[in-house]
């Protein structure tokens, strides 16, 4: 048994850390999530895949209390989250780190100040210790030489790494990553996934990663879920994902084939959309 299989097996035997049950979310008449349910086991890496606009970020925002679900329950460590109470809100914030898709950095704060923020908000450490830890996180993301710079002075990839440093600075039990590698070059993209896998091995932390990097997600995760048309249409191990005959999984796994189909269609005088409509129509026929 290789180390990843061992890790998968031990993670699978651990208790649930996050349970999402029957989550519904709509904006006006637009139903985004309907009956979304899944469980993330303590110490595991859970990847969420799905087409653009499927509701992956909305799902994360519901968990982070940025959006309010219309129905459903979210349990963390066996306790339903109730964000109406400041104490449970703060306790959750202390135990979890978030990296949002748009980074959510504060323009008026330096890289060091942005990174230090979660420590200021959730601990009573001295200023010196907060700065030391923030600097350490920046070093891990190769940003220590930019500690005094403001987000606008950093490249897109550097801003992403800064958001990553802030998400892990408190060494949280669970980290939620929304597209942690978007805009990063291939080497840094691998480094981010490598870092997530390393942290899991070192601290046994739990991660939920929303990503479009299928190969990397399959390499590091214990469980892969696919969000499609408001619900989780597949949830299983990377091996099960690889073997699944579900048409949505199949189309994601074999995106090169999908591209070839779209290009062939274009060359025959057809049209291909910028988003997922062409693929969607194809899938709807198969489902
Ligand atoms: N605050 C909002 N008000 C109205 N509609 C919203 C809001 N936030 C998200 N949506 C809609 O919800 C849907 C899902 O958006 P979401 O950002 O979760 O997609 P996603 O799966 O994260 O896509 P991507 O892979 O491109 O990041 C989209 O149709 C989006 O327009
Ligand atoms: Mg998103």
**Strand composition percent:** 15-25%
Spatial order of strands in the largest sheet: 6-7-8-3-9-10
**CATH architectural type of the largest domain:** 3-Layer(aba) Sandwich
- The value of Rg in angstroms is 20 Å
Q: Write the element-wise H/E pattern from the N-terminal end onward.
A: HEEEHEEHEHHHEHEHEEHHHH
Which structural class best describes the helix and strand composition?
alpha/beta
Low-confidence stretches: 1-13
Averaged pLDDT, please?
86
Instruction: Calculate the terminal CA-CA distance, rounded to whole Å.
Output: 36 Å
State the name of the first-level CATH class of the largest domain. Answer: Alpha Beta
Total strands: the figure is 10
Largest sheet: 6 strands, mixed
The name CATH uses for the topology of the largest domain is Rossmann fold
**Overall structural domain count:** 2
Q: Helix count, per DSSP?
A: 12
> How would you sum up the global shape?
globular
CATH superfamily of the largest domain: P-loop containing nucleotide triphosphate hydrolases
């Amino acid at each position: 048994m290789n180390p990843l299989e061992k890790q998968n097996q031990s993670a699978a035997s651990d208790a649930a850390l996050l349970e999402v049950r029957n989550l519904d979310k709509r904006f006006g008449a637009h139903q985004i999530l309907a009956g979304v349910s899944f469980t993330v086991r303590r110490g595991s890496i859970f990847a969420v895949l799905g087409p653009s606009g499927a509701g992956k970020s909305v799902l994360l925002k519901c968990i982070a209390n940025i959006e309010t679900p219309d129905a459903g329950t979210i349990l963390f460590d066996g306790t339903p989250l109730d964000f109406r109470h400041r104490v449970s809100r703060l306790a959750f914030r202390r135990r979890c780190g978030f990296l949002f898709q748009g980074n959510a950095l504060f323009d008026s704060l330096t890289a060091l100040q942005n990174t230090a923020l979660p420590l200021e908000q959730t601990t009573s450490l001295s200023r010196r210790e907060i700065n030391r830890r923030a600097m350490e996180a920046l070093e891990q993301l190769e940003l220590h030489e930019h500690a005094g710079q403001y987000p606008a002075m950093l490249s897109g990839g550097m801003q992403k790494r800064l958001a990553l440093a802030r998400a892990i600075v408190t060494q949280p039990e669970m980290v939620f990553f929304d597209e942690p590698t978007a805009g990063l070059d291939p080497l840094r993209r691998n480094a981010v996934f490598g870092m997530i896998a390393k942290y899991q091995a070192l601290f046994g932390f739990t991660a939920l990663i929303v990503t479009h990097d299928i190969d990397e997600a399959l390499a590091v995760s214990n469980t892969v879920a696919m969000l499609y048309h408001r619900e989780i249409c597949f949830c299983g191990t990377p091996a099960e994902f690889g073997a699944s005959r579900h048409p949505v999984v199949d189309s994601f796994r074999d995106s090169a084939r999908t591209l070839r189909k779209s290009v062939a269609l274009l060359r025959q005088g057809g049209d291909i959309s910028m988003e997922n409509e062409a693929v969607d129509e194809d899938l709807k026929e198969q489902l």
